[in-house]
Design a protein that fits this description.
mainly alpha, single chain, 9 helices, about 250 residues, 2 domains, 3-stranded parallel sheet, elongated
Length: about 250
């Protein structure tokens, strides 16, 4: 005869476990849809570690499909709610950890979901399993921080452009935001800035200004000397001179 599984180490009884698992199943479907919408709308952007749209789409789709399955599973007559609690929380930790890496780690805000899943595990699972899931989440955060620190450049990026771009300025803004997150200092050199009457009012410049650290002219030898002074006195604080000049209150 086969051995009967022992569920006495689980904190809640079957009825309460069923109720909590049902609530989490609804929450999981909502979160999977919210993450997909945030990605498609541009609210979530790729980090430097995994910049692969195919991987992102596949991960989000798979998480949604499993979320729907885990939403339906507790309604079955012979469903084992203890097994469902364990399986669903492992699914959450696995997929949310991958998405945490894909969307840039702590900057994405997904660490909050990892904390929530660990708290749910403490309620639903035996202590050993709950601590195991918490250790996975902790290692994920530490690992992304270390990896991100190694991959993110400490260099200075110089861009020379008049900002009169006619392409997709929304995409330009997103890519500039990503570039700004992954470099030490982002300097935009604009030849038109040497003219007193110039104002950065083109769509291209409006898209990039919130993400650059220094906005400098590059039209004569004096402007090149100014650039040299900026490069020789770099600090980790963003440049503010151009923001004051144009009364810019963007990020």
């Amino acid at each position: 005869m086969g051995q009967t599984a022992d569920f006495t180490t689980y904190p809640l009884n079957a009825a309460l476990t069923h109720r909590v698992v049902s609530y989490l199943s609804f929450f999981r479907v909502f979160i999977s849809l919210a993450l997909a919408f945030a990605y498609l709308s541009g609210a979530l952007v790729h980090g430097l570690t995994f910049d692969n749209p195919t991987l992102t789409f596949t991960t989000l789709s798979a998480y949604f499909v499993l979320a729907v399955y885990l939403f339906v599973a507790p309604q079955r007559k012979n469903a084992n709610y203890f097994y469902l609690a364990q399986a669903s929380l492992f699914v959450d930790i696995g997929f949310l950890t991958l998405l945490f890496y894909i969307f840039g780690g702590l900057d994405s805000g997904l660490a909050v979901l990892l904390v929530f899943i660990c708290a749910s595990a403490a309620i639903l699972l035996p202590l050993r399993l709950a601590l195991f899931l918490a250790s996975i989440a902790t290692l994920a955060v530490i690992g992304e921080s270390v990896m991100g620190g190694l991959l993110r450049s400490g260099g200075v990026v110089l861009i020379i452009s008049d900002g009169c771009d006619r392409g997709d300025t929304e995409l330009l803004g997103k890519e500039m935001a990503r570039l700004a997150r992954n470099c030490h200092r982002l300097i935009w050199l604009n030849p038109l800035l040497g003219y007193d009457a110039y104002q950065p009012l083109t769509k291209g410049m409006i898209a990039v200004l919130p993400h650059i650290d220094d906005f400098l002219p590059v039209h004569n030898l004096e402007s090149l000397e100014q650039l040299g002074e900026v490069l020789s006195n770099l600090t980790y604080s963003s440049g503010v001179s151009w923001r004051a000049r144009y009364d810019w209150e963007g990020a």
